[in-house]
């Protein structure tokens, strides 16, 4: 069969998934032992060449443990040749290229190496639901757009950029499901800026990332009146320790399955999950300012991200808090800045301190407070620039937002 949803059932489609009918697996002895306690027919791929495994079991359900010889070749082969496959990956530390490959598959999930038999069964059930949903209503995962914002220097206005971009999409593409995720886990400001209730339960997510599903994610979302779902955690100086790679990747994976547009506000400092996230998102956006130290920091960060992303596309460089053109300040031209760092600057955002201050005091996006602000116009242009081809033309221009 060509569909992962059909193959997940195997020949015993009526059998309850509390006992997995059949699964092809390539894993270490401990995981294989756990798997055999809940599966009647475990097909061991250890004696099969990766290319043959892709051809023989592509489109079916596979359990793979990262680090076992041949697993990476199988995952990459499935992403290119058999994207309708469902893969349950076991790992505590996935490299960027494997995360990106998993996101291309029809259904995928990640379990820690410490996973027990019950965890495997629950993950298989979630994969089956995802595959069936994709078969009935289209592949939600493939249509999701995920952008990550990261500051080259502190105080560059990354949170404001992420917020305004998310609300600009909600305004432009009416009816679209938009989510804003604040990954500044210890001291994120998104909830304060928008007067959002921080609902993300980091201890629960960290303890069992594999248990996060659409229903639980919905419980952790704050719905802003302007139509954007906001995911933030309560401020906690120890929260960064709870943000494991498995937890954060699972959070973003489920968010991308449930929302059409996902915006990620990332911390500047390196976290265990920074590289996998920047390597997997559709756009990695570096936010900086037009000063010599900031430009050098932005150029260095952009080059690092470019290497990380490979053929997924270069990082976009945005200069924030630019002075209005009519004001004369000791600021050099953008074209000179580009020559200085030998890199294209993709967008500039005009500063509007008064509007930004009013917006955060009211818990609203700047576009609600001052819709004709140059900052709002610059963000809207940047969003149009990044939108996938054909989406901008479908934007609904009726009922434009007014100041409230």
Could you name the key traits of this structure?
18 helices, alpha/beta, 404 residues, disordered C terminus, Rossmann fold, 43% helix, 8-stranded mixed beta sheet
* Main β sheet profile: 8 strands, mixed
Instruction: Count the E strands.
Output: 13
Q: Using only CA atoms, what is the Rg? A: 22 Å
Overall pLDDT confidence: 86
Distance between the termini: 54 Å
Helical residue percent band: 40-55%
What fold name goes in the CATH topology slot of the largest domain?
Rossmann fold
Low-confidence stretches: 1-17, 138-142, 326-330, 393-404
Query: Structural class, from secondary structure content?
Result: alpha/beta
What is the oligomeric state here?
A: single chain
CATH architecture annotation of the largest domain: 3-Layer(aba) Sandwich
Shape: globular
- Number of self-contained structural domains: 2
Strand arrangement within the widest β-sheet reads 8-9-7-10-6-11-12-13
For this structure, what is the CATH class of the largest domain? Alpha Beta
Q: Helix tally?
A: 18
Fraction of residues in β-strands: 15-25%
At the fourth CATH level, what is the homologous superfamily of the largest domain?
P-loop containing nucleotide triphosphate hydrolases
Protein name: AAA domain-containing protein
GO molecular function: ATP binding; ATP hydrolysis activity
């Amino acid at each position: 069969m060509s569909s992962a949803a059909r193959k997940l059932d195997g020949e015993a489609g009526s059998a309850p998934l509390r006992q997995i009918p059949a699964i092809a697996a390539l894993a270490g002895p401990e995981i294989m032992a756990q798997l055999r306690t809940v599966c009647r027919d475990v097909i061991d791929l250890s004696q099969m060449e990766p290319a043959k495994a892709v051809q023989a079991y592509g489109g079916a359900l596979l359990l793979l443990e990262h680090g076992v010889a041949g697993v990476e070749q199988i995952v990459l082969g499935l992403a290119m040749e058999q994207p309708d496959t469902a893969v349950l990956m076991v790992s505590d530390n996935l490299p960027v290229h494997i995360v990106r490959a998993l996101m291309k598959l029809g259904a995928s999930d990640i379990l820690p190496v410490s996973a027990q038999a019950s965890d495997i069964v629950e993950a298989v059930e979630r994969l089956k639901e995802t595959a069936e949903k994709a078969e009935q209503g289209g592949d939600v995962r493939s249509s999701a757009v995920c952008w990550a914002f990261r500051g080259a220097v502190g105080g560059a206005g990354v949170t404001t950029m992420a917020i305004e971009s998310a609300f600009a999409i909600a305004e432009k593409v009416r009816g679209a499901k938009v989510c804003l995720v604040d990954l500044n886990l210890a001291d994120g400001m998104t909830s304060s800026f928008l007067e959002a209730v921080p609902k993300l339960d980091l201890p629960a997510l960290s303890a069992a990332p594999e248990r996060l599903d659409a229903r639980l994610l919905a419980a952790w979302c704050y719905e802003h009146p302007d139509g954007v779902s906001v995911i933030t955690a309560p401020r906690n100086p120890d929260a960064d320790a709870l943000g494991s790679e498995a937890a954060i990747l699972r959070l973003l994976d489920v968010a991308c399955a449930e929302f059409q547009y996902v915006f990620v506000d990332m911390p500047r400092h390196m976290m265990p999950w920074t590289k996998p996230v920047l390597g997997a998102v559709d756009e990695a956006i570096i936010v900086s300012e037009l000063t010599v130290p900031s430009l050098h920091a932005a150029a260095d960060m952009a080059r690092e991200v470019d290497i990380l992303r490979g053929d997924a596309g270069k990082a976009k460089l945005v200069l924030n808090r630019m002075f209005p053109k009519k004001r004369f300040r000791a600021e050099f031209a953008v074209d000179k800045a580009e020559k200085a760092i030998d890199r294209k600057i993709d967008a500039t955002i005009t500063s509007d301190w008064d509007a930004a201050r009013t917006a955060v005091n009211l818990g609203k996006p700047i576009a609600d407070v001052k819709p004709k602000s140059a900052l709002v116009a610059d963000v809207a242009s940047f969003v149009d620039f990044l939108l996938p081809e054909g989406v901008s033309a479908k934007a609904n221009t009726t009922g434009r937002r007014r100041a409230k």
